[in-house]
Amino acid sequence: MGYKSLRDCVNDLEKHGHLIRIKEEVDPYLEMAAIHMRVYDAQGPALYFERIKGSKFPAVSNLFGTLDRSKFMFRDTLDHVKKLVDIKMNPMSVLKNPFQYAGSSMVALGALPWKKKSGAPIQYGLTQISELPQIVNWPMDGGAFVTMPQVYSEDIHKPGIMNANLGMYRIQLSGNDYIQDQEVGLHYQLHRGIGVHQTKANELGRPLKVSIFVGGPPSHPLSAVMPLPEGLSEMIFAGTLANRRFRYFYDEEGFCISADADFVITGTVYPNENKPEGPFGDHIGYYSLVHPFPLMKVHKVYHRKDPIWSFTVVGRPPQEDTSFGALIHEITGNAIPQQIAGLHAVNAVDPAGVHPLLFAIGSERYTPYQAVDRPQELLTIANQILGTNQLSLAKYLFISNYQDNPALDIHDIAGFFTHILERIDFKRDVHFITNTSIDTLDYTGDGLNTGSKVTFAAVGKAKRTLWTELPSHFNLPRPFNQAKLALPGVLVLEGAKFTSYADEINLLAQWTAASQDLDWSGIGLIVLADDAGFVAENVNNFVWTTFTRSNPSHDIYGIQSFTEFKHWGCHGPLIIDARAKPHHAPDLIKDPEVEKRVDQLGSKGGSLHGII
After folding, report:
1. For the ranges 99-113, 130-144, 490-504, which has the lowest average pLDDT?
2. Which residue among 128, 380, 421, 532 sits deepest, i.e. has the most Cβ atoms within 10 Å of its Cβ?
3. Which residues are CB-contacts of 573 (< 8 A; sequence separation ≥ 6)?
């Protein structure tokens, strides 16, 4: 049976050893986030914070911190939900054919939202924004944020829950120019359903009603991050996952209220009313900076009896949202490959920050009557990937041919790079898209939401043998002459700090000219970095630095590069300049004094003793 509330879930996790209580009073400014991150790094339990400075409400985090714990929470429904997704069914279809899907049809009965008439737990009481836990995760954050919200909006042309959108978009509760208890900031990125709803409301000159749900059964926040098609209600999936219908009602002001949530904040977003939002330490591993985003005018803040505030912490992967992603993949399986003909697998590489880097495997079937010696269908597949939902926010796409190695694993980062670099022809197989949209959180481009993309497509037999160690005679010209191998055939070079593109283009032109006669036979990729030792230390450091600190159109160079009929290529290794640039956002750095306080919780007698 599904959980009726977040407290039911907390009690169940505690009973089975998946949750511990933090009994000491904790500071919502940095300390709660630091505790969460330390326990997540240890793959520890969910955390229930009993006493939070400045708030009467307790909080819970790290619910989804491990895949095993997530599977435990959905142990009664997960297999049925996976089956529904695998056969590309929504619950309504199963209800029409109950005998065909016997086991799953009973779960589907719990999928239809249930409009309550009275007696909803959320109606217990009202509070104010300032009385909620004011959790600040990173030192440069602009204020307190809601980090596990379920933001609900409806299509003004087609009102009602079946055409609604439920998404997880951060909410700034305090700081900047927000009027306390009256205004909050609503941050959402590209390819989010609420953007469609706000556009339609703006066209009519009408405010958009928004409800922010916090807490509730764990199926609710998970549904808010599920990659569902636009127009399909996340509330259906929430009911399916919970084996309990999503309960809701409309208050006297016309706002949709989740009956089982722990808190609901209602408010309106008026056309063209924005305020500065941020900074915020984000999941790529850097701060997103201050930008104008929609202003939400608060109407009411509901809460249930004995509510629990739910939160998470984002930062450089892996974090709890990494585990979210693993659970989503567990549920959706091959849903995206089924949507794109010829696609076998796709992976948004989490250690690289998800959106910066995609791996994909496709099939080459255009010319079965002859040997495949160049990418053809792979390029068609690549274009479809970069036009599909949030995958379109990717910057770097590496795609290989399934027939070349059916055992190739898109989750084996080092193995995938080796496969690509052995086969790719840099004169032909590099394809750019410039002056386009990228992830809002990515500051490598020349403006908010703007940058470039590149596809690397490789087919056929291996063309080069990649070096696993540098030859003794290998000497490079200055200033990039400190070299380390990060992966087979991947050379990381450390040199002078980046100054400006005008200077660096000239410098790299001189350096590549001086390097073109060297033996590059075992090198496919060169990465320029501020700290070669850090980048080459492990594969996670390599992909995070290389693909979060570069903009393909501006930061890709090559040995003996050329442009021919608008096609760019290079005869020697490809170069990615992954040095920090002046316009990049700052790294996320923890507060050492707060870390010392967390250490104390791990000492004998502390709530985290034996865990951290």
Report:
1. 99-113
2. 421
3. 426, 491, 520, 523, 524, 525, 526, 558, 559
**The pLDDT value given to residue 93:** 54
Reduce the secondary structure of 487-541 to three states and give it as a string.
ECCEEEEECCCCCCHHHHHHHHHHHHHHHCCCCCCCCCEEEEECCHHHHHHCHHH
Q: Tokens 């999928």, residue?
A: 111
In this structure, the strands spanning 357-362 and 396-401 are: parallel
Amino acid present at 10: V
SS3 346: strand
145 closest CA partner among 105, 189, 176, 114: 176
CB 372 within 8 A of CB 323: no
CB atoms within 10 A of CB 506: 10
| 3 state SS for 103-142 | HHHHHHCCCCCEECCCCCHHHHEECCHHHCCCCECCCCCC
- Quote the tokens at residue 492: 């990381």
Q: Which residue has the tokens 């040995």?
A: 559
Looking at residue 325, what is its pLDDT?
Answer: 86
CA dist., res. 304 & res. 261, Å (int): 7
**Cα(178)–Cα(172) distance, rounded to whole angstroms?**
9
- Predicted TM-score (pTM) of the model is 0.92
The secondary structure element, H or E, covering residue 337 is: helix 335-339
